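seq:
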Amino acid sequence: MPESAEAVEPTPATPAAAKSPANSLDDLFASEHEQDNETGTKGRKKKRRTGCLVALIIVLALIGGVVAGGVWVMNTYGEQVNDIFGWGEPKDWEPGMATGEAIVTIRSGDTGSPVSTALYEAGVTKTENVFYDYLVENDPSFTFYPGVYSLQKKMTAAAALEALGNPENKMENSVSIPEGGTVESSLPVIAESIGIPIEDLEAAAADPSTFGVEADSLEGWLFPAVYTFDPDADATQIIQRMVDRTRQSLESAGVEAGDEQRVLTIASIIQREGRLDDFPKVSRVIQNRLDDGMKLQMDSTSQYGYGELHAGKLSTSKEAQNDDNPWNTYVHVGLPKGPIANPSDAAIDAAIHPVDGPWFYFVTINPSTGETVFSVTYSEHEKAVATWIEWCSENPDQGC
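struct:
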């Protein structure tokens, strides 16, 4: 934080002192004056120049203090200041900018705040809180009905609220499965969106062989996408549709028969560990570590094995990191027992097409933007980790 300048009030001078040049600002440079003619014209000119210089320095210091203070205020309270004076970027899109399609899922019990976040993440609204602020001011008693809604990107908050209240925008018998979700998190979403008993879905998913999957679990096989089902579709038909979509993605990516489970396992780690732009580089780190015989040490795997994957924490607890379960890559060398989440097309493609590179480490140094640093050596990685720790200390409420 910039240090603020303090102006010291001079002590009021007595009449005698006022006549004495020793009590003026010029006496700061008394020795310099004394080297010149004490009573001559040259000395008086130098005193005048010096006095002006000191005065100028004081004025600049005061101005600097004001500027530094202003910078601190804007850095600390910039958003509030912009709100008061109407400065900065508008928080809402302009009418007429809406375009394309955006799918938004509203879950049972959702209120204005989570809906506002969902709209922002889907690209509907411009900022995360603009919808919530508009709702509180204009229609705080609005009722949200769970389901999947087809909206547009770049809608105003007012238009988004109107669209959510229009039954024609609710996609009947539809469900949106998020990328990086799990069987545990996906089945309740399906049950709630379609109105099918959760017990039926759990019973159907309990036997992966029913769907031709040779594994202990359907983890990684419920492809993340938006689905619309016939009103009379049962639990087995619903899950089969999702498994078939996963097979379609594997075939399109060129995955050979018999290699599906391995690819899905790598892709699921990529999905949980990196942002879209970094998927091929995360894949390379995984491959480099496997080739070198190193432990993968991926937090997502230890969190999954310990049941912490949906706990909302970026870092892993010591208990999860040291737990001896077949998914924990901090304990076991090689890939975990199986997939840990539902990977997207992009993650599956990255799993079999890692970009060339020498990296063995990576860490997301700014979770709010997803900025990630990839490193070759451990010393480089430690510096990046220090940056992440600093970010966490400055953002203690962001899930670190």
